[in-house]
Design goal:
single chain; 279 residues; Rossmann fold; Bovine Mitochondrial F1-ATPase, ATP Synthase Beta Chain, Chain D, domain3; 2 domains; 7-stranded mixed sheet; 7 strands; 11% strand
């Protein structure tokens, strides 16, 4: 996997090095902000970042352009740029779904098979948001990030669906045992929390058992913890972007799962980085 420093992504649906990640979202759910943030974070990791510009006037494209080291609209220019860079660095290539549908991405990948050197990781977005209900929006993917309407409505970002988002890394063959165990426990808790949330919202917390109330409250804390400020959003949120190592994320999530944060209000965990470690 490639660490992004984004808690929700690295825990629940990691990026596969040399693989393809697909974004599935409705309008105004932050997919282009996510791609811009990914470009910025991968530059920090020493990746070369290339954006295959679809030349769209949709809001957010300019942010991706700004955060990409190289931006080209013509397939031949993208190809030549990758050939020039690929011997030196891993590459993150951002591509719109239109290039998948036109067959241009497949053609580019076929040509690049003839070029050796380091991996190309591809991030696919759906700028027109035409495939939000399509279970096979891009064809085969190594990682799927499905954006969640409920999280958006409550101002929780990144709005990655913890149940619907997944990665082939999570099949276990290439995943550390601690990561796999923690990820599975976190997903199970968040699934139960979501089931209970509609009941609590409608009838109140007193209508569920004490054991379910404990799960609900821990799920609420975990959901709050997975919210995270982005570097590209600093001018708007007035909060500095946060980068957490996978080690720190797993340690924090385990503390929440084990009940160490049961006396902490969810608001104290929301939109922050590492949990404070007390002696």
């Amino acid at each position: 996997m490639i660490e992004t420093g984004v808690k929700a992504l690295d825990l629940l649906a990691p990026v596969v090095r040399g693989g393809t990640v697909g974004f599935v979202a409705r309008p105004n759910m932050g997919q282009l902000v996510m791609l811009a943030e990914l470009m910025l974070r991968m530059k920090k990791r020493g990746f070369a970042t290339v954006f295959w510009d679809p030349q769209s006037d949709i809001s957010g494209v300019e942010l991706v352009q700004e955060q990409s080291e190289f931006s080209h609209s013509a397939k031949e220019d993208v190809y030549q740029q990758i050939v020039q860079l690929r011997g030196e660095k891993d590459i993150l290539l951002g591509v719109d779904r239109s290039k998948v549908l036109s067959g241009e991405l497949l053609s580019l990948r076929d040509r690049l098979k003839e070029v050796g050197a380091r991996p190309i990781t591809i991030a696919l977005v759906d700028i027109k948001c035409e495939a939000a209900d399509d279970d096979n929006a891009y064809g085969p993917l190594d990682t799927l990030w499905r954006f969640d309407t409920d999280l958006i409505s409550r101002g929780i970002y990144p709005a990655i669906d913890p149940i619907g988002s997944t990665s082939t890394v999570l099949e276990g063959a290439h995943l550390d045992a601690v990561h796999l165990t923690t990820q599975q426990a976190a997903r199970k808790l968040l699934r139960r929390y979501r089931e209970l949330r509609s009941l609590v919202t409608a009838l109140g917390a007193e209508k569920i058992s004490d054991s379910d109330l404990q799960l609900y409250q821990r799920g609420e804390r975990l959901e709050a913890y997975l919210a995270q400020p982005f570097y590209v959003s600093e001018p708007y949120t007035k909060k500095p972007g946060e980068w957490l190592t996978l080690y720190d994320t797993l340690a924090d999530v385990k503390r929440i799962l084990d009940g160490e944060m049961d006396t902490t209000e969810p608001s104290e965990l929301f939109f922050k980085g590492r949990l404070e470690v007390t002696s």
